[in-house]
TrEMBL record:
InterPro entries: Poly_Biosynth_Transport. It comes from the Bacteria. It is a multi-pass membrane protein. The chain crosses the membrane at residues 16-33, 45-63, 95-116, 128-149, 161-182, 188-206, 315-335, 347-369, 381-401, 407-425, 437-458, 470-491. The keyword Transmembrane applies. Keywords: Cell membrane, Membrane, Transmembrane, Transmembrane helix. It comes from Bacteroides gallinaceum. This is Lipopolysaccharide biosynthesis protein. It is found in: Cell membrane.
Length: 512
């Protein structure tokens, strides 16, 4: 079996395992979110999300280093140098411990000041908000220290670990819901402490798995000044991109709180919950494929790398579009059935955020390819600067009286501009042609998106808003998107592969 065939088989297996993980976690997440929202109430739910976001605001420091850790561990594994791999892991762990200490200091100083002086929180809930902040700081520190372990699992492509440990995580989150309903103490404070406990147990499980299965994950006290400087330098330039992600995520959350209060934060939290549930499908596929992009670059297999990038971009878009089209049509119905109380603005927030996510799916392979090269300075300066403009532009929009959803429109527009900049910056780094990207990616996803909408739109507009319309729209979306992807979105070889697999599955079922 060729290396390409082996890699494809591994990607398929890992993707399947991650989908089982995602389905389980999605069911748990959607159920627990509903119970937590109704138990805490809209106001306390908004407070939990916005106060936790104060700590997440500092997460761009860790996010930058996470990218560097993932790249260097995967690259070292692709080169097959065990001594260097051990050195990279231990250096990454040292850096993340330092980052955790910095985050704690920032959270206990700037975080506390911002919460007490700038945020709109009812006076009688300030004590509860204080404990939410403390738990969020500790949970963030725990996650930061565990980043090298997660990166090691992904680099080794042992996705089964994520699937098995997620079962434990789901059971613990269900236990949190039960305890939240069982005790009569302050629900917001109790919820914050229980989520902290879950984070601690899960992070410990990931680290113990790595120590058992990967030789390099056992910490060795190694001080390599050159490697330390190289990795932090990579992270420093990556900080532009991660800072922008924090600003248009948690930064916009803070901005909405300052202008409109915690009720709007609850609406955003609901929209984010649904958006994340849908994006997990794509994230699982990309998680299985990303290490291969880095490893092919490390081996100098540029043509194979380009093919993986095109495939990752197109299939990521197809997966997200396949799942999100029914949600875009039936947002109102879905949120009403899922939640007893739907916060105002949730529907329009969710629709715009899903459209932005569809654009961003095409960016992931370019981001991973850039990180694989290690030459991130110019790329991050240009793309990061574009995305950093989201927050000030959003502030101006809200200041002149624009509605809350305007900030998400700003995000969509700037993400579209950043997408073009990414392609231009990447071209000289890996020898990829813009023409190929437009032919093999953009032209196909654009046609798929346009043609797939026609039939479901006709059904949606000609039926009353009932459960019958919901199922009719869902069925027509599946049939329409599936048909268009197969006939227009796939290459000839990909269609042959799909037919072969389908026939094989049917034959296996018939001969059982």
């Amino acid at each position: 079996m060729t290396n390409t065939a082996e890699n494809n088989k591994r990607i398929a297996k890992n993707t399947l395992l991650l989908y089982f993980r995602m389905l389980f976690m999605m069911v748990v997440s959607l159920y627990t979110s509903r119970v937590v929202l109704n138990t805490l109430g809209v106001e306390d739910y908004g407070i939990y999300n916005v106060v936790g976001g104060v700590v997440a605001m500092f997460g761009f420091i860790n996010g930058s280093m996470s990218s560097a850790t993932q790249r260097y561990i995967t690259f070292a594994l692709g080169k097959g140098n065990m001594d260097n791999l051990k050195k990279v892991f231990s250096t990454a762990l040292q850096i993340h411990i330092l980052i955790a200490v910095i985050i704690i200091l920032l959270g206990e100083t700037i975080g506390l000041w911002f919460m007490y002086e700038k945020m709109q929180i009812p006076a009688e809930r300030m004590d509860a908000a204080f404990w939410v902040l403390q738990c969020s700081i500790l949970a963030t520190a725990i996650m930061i220290i565990s980043v090298p372990y997660n990166a090691d699992i992904i680099a080794h492509e042992k996705m089964s670990a994520f699937a098995y440990i997620s079962i434990l995580e789901g059971m613990l989150k269900l236990a949190v819901v039960y305890l939240l309903l069982a005790f009569n103490s302050d629900k917001l404070i109790l919820y914050a402490f229980l989520i902290l406990a879950v984070q601690l147990l899960i992070r410990f499980r990931y680290s113990s798995y790595c120590n058992k299965h990967f030789e390099e994950s056992k910490y060795h006290h190694i001080w390599d000044k050159r490697l330390f400087k190289e990795m932090t330098g990579f992270a420093g330039w990556s900080m532009f991109g991660n800072l922008s992600a924090v600003l248009y995520g948690q930064g916009l959350n803070m901005l909405l709180n300052v202008f409109f209060g915690p009720i709007v934060n609850a609406a955003r939290a609901v929209a984010v919950q649904v958006q994340n549930a849908i994006q997990q499908f794509v994230g699982n596929f990309q998680m299985a494929l990303n290490p291969q992009i880095t490893k092919t670059y490390a081996k100098g297999e540029m043509k194979e790398m380009h093919k993986l990038m095109f495939r990752s971009a197109r299939f990521s878009f197809y997966l997200l579009f396949f799942l999100s089209l029914p949600v875009l049509f039936e947002t109102d119905f879905i949120l009403t059935i899922w939640l007893k109380t739907v916060p105002e603005n949730s529907i329009i927030f969710l629709r715009i955020m899903i459209c932005t996510s569809l654009i961003y799916t095409l960016a992931n392979p370019m981001i991973i390819a850039n990180q694989a090269t290690g030459k991130v300075k110019k790329y991050q300066m240009v793309c990061g600067t574009i995305l950093l403009m989201i927050l000030p532009i959003s502030y101006v929009c809200l200041k002149i009286g624009c509605p809350p959803y305007s900030v998400f429109i700003v995000h969509f527009c700037m993400e579209s501009v950043a997408q073009l900049a990414r392609m231009i910056m990447l071209r000289p780094l890996i020898g990829i042609r813009l023409r190929d990207y437009f032919i093999y990616v953009y032209s196909k996803v654009f046609v798929v998106a346009i043609l797939s909408v026609v039939f479901p739109f006709f059904v949606h507009e000609n039926l009353d808003n009932t459960i019958t319309r919901f199922f009719a729209v869902c069925i027509t979306c599946v049939l329409s998107v599936g048909t268009v992807i197969y006939t227009v979105g796939l290459s000839k070889n990909e269609r042959i592969f799909v037919r072969t697999k389908a026939v094989s599955m049917i034959n296996n079922i018939l001969h059982r």
